[in-house]
Design a protein that fits this description.
Number of domains: 1
Largest sheet: 3 strands, antiparallel
Shape: globular
Strand content: 15-25%
Strand order of the largest sheet: 1-4-5
Distance between the termini: 46 Å
Number of helices: 3
Amino acid sequence: MTLPLSEPEMQRGIIEQARWLGFRVHHDRPAQTSRGWRTPIEGDAGFPDLVLALDGYVLAWELKTRRGKVSDEQAAWGEAMTGRNGVAVVEYGVIRPDQYDDALAALDRIAHAMRR
């Protein structure tokens, strides 16, 4: 039987284990502002809580308590990441100024191919 865990407890345990196993770990931490807790980002809201990567295997995990609900934005990220067939494709690259046009063309090509 698993004890009830809070999101921060799960997060700490998962990050600790992932690092111990050699995963690269990414988590955006919120900061308290005069308007409450905020996570400054540029992009669409709802990005997964954790992104873990090891030897080409990438995990994007949203952490929720037993009763926690996935927001529409979080669900949209999940759908965008797994696509119609439930499989994610991760492509890593370094884009430099002389490759900017190629990067834009790749985005266009992928978007059109996925909408067929």
